[in-house]
Amino acid sequence: MISGGSTDGDSNRARKAMGRRVCLEVNGRRRNEPIISFGPEDLRGVSLPHNDALVIQALVANYDVLRVFVDNWSSVNVIFKEALIQMDLHEYQLEAIETALFGFAGHTVYPKGEITLPLTLGSGDLRKTIMTVFTVVDAPSSYNIILGRPAMNEMRAVASIYHQKIKFLVRGQVGEVKRDQPSSRKCYGETVRIDQKKERREGKKKKMVQEAREIEEK
């Protein structure tokens, strides 16, 4: 889970103002809108049993992007700098932000900025495109993009990790995006290795600091 970022304001004052707003819900869903649901038919092709994260492929700025991690708990959408470089978008002007992100293996990360890009999910007549804000992070990751609550809410999408699928409303119908389980499992293994390397590096640093202190105390 990633928290922080500018989703609810890029300052303490802005976040407090957001918290004071009163949201009024009117009539729930709109008339004649289909209900999004998941059933046994949505499990076709899913490797069971599983504990896999939901990883999909998406079209971002007209690039087919693999390894897109769907994380309903994250307060921001994240695109990693390396992915921007691969997409040849790294030279675009980023909008500066002040708020740090928390949750990257327990560390605080200061974003490089924000960039607004078109995000497309689905295919054919059930394809939906929105413009959404991505927070740019320069950090090692097995994923290219993390889709958080902002994109999911803008898409009016619902994700089922068990069914390994996203469904969303598009022109009075329900579109969907299926999982990429092999990528999910590969990303998980790479994430574990990245975290292990970080832990070993930090362990070495702590050991060096401790040894330096012991030498000073002698």
Provide the succession of SSEs.
EHEEEHEEEEEHEEEH
Distance between the termini: 44 Å
Structural class: alpha+beta
Total domains: 1
Model description:
The protein has a single domain, classed as Cathepsin D, subunit A, domain 1, CATH 2.40.70.10. The longest helix has 37 residues, at 181-217. A six-stranded mixed barrel has the order 2-3-9-4-8-7. A three-stranded antiparallel β-sheet has the order 1-5-6, with no helix packed on it. A three-stranded antiparallel β-sheet has the order 10-11-12. The protein is globular. By secondary structure, it is of the alpha+beta class. It has four helices and twelve strands.
Summary tags:
218 residues; 29% strand; Cathepsin D, subunit A, domain 1; 4 helices; 3-stranded antiparallel beta sheet; alpha+beta; 6-stranded mixed beta barrel; 27% helix; 12 strands
Summarize the structure.
This protein is of the alpha+beta class and 218 residues long.
What's the helix and strand layout?
Elements: E1 3-4, H1 12-20, E2 55-60, E3 63-70, E4 78-80, H2 81-86, E5 101-104, E6 107-109, E7 113-121, E8 128-137, E9 145-147, H3 149-155, E10 157-160, E11 165-170, E12 173-178, H4 181-217
